[in-house]
Amino acid sequence: MQRILSDIERIERRRASRRKWEISHPVQMKAQRKRHKAAHRDKESARFRRYYEKHSAFLKERSRIYKMADPERAKVRDRLWRQTENGKLSDKLHHMKRRDATRDKPSASLKELSAITARQRGRCFYCNMKTKLTLDHVIPLSKDGSNTAENIVFACLHCNTAKGSRIWRIC
Questions:
Q1: Dist. CA 55–CA 40, nearest whole Å
Q2: 10 Å Cβ neighbour count for 147?
Q3: CA dist 96 → 2, 54, 141, 148 (Å)
Q4: Neighbour tally for 29: CB within 10 Å
Q5: Considering only CA atoms, which of 165, 171, 168 is closest in space to residue 153?
Q6: Contacts of 37 (CB under 8 A, 6+ apart)
Q7: ∠ CA 52-53-57 to the nearest 5 degrees?
Q8: Nearest Cα to 146, choosing from 109, 104, 113, 118?
Q9: What pTM value is reported for the model?
Q10: CATH code of the region 105-163
Q11: Which residue of 3, 51, 153, 170 has the lowest C-beta tally within 10 Å?
Q12: pLDDT tens digits, 120-166
């Protein structure tokens, strides 16, 4: 019994020492967390997905309460998030889903949009330039195109504007 207590005490002392070191070395801890997150990205995202599935109602309610408690701060946080890559893709997905609500065609998911950007390696689909990209429909929505992943590409503003509402054909 004495041996077990001493082991527990030793573990607790080690944990307390580690916490003390973490508090006194915030820069090193931030770098360490960043390296760990990068090395275990898939595992972390899977863990978060499982947690979100299990606690989605609680998380949504907490978000709603946060927005009601301080609406100005929530607006700033949302605006900053929308400026990130995932925020931009999420906004595009939201607008596509709203547009599709009037049609009976499915929208591309956020995962599919991310896969499209990865496939194009951040380059324009038409001119292959590496610049700021906009979402483009190969067959425009006005010509009865859809928001499916097969009909969506990312193009630079110049090519997207020049293409207009025409159908792009492979020659």
A1: 22
A2: 21
A3: 65, 27, 10, 9
A4: 13
A5: 168
A6: 44
A7: 75
A8: 104
A9: 0.44
A10: 1.10.30.50
A11: 170
A12: 998 999 899 998 888 888 888 878 788 888 888 999 999 988 888 88
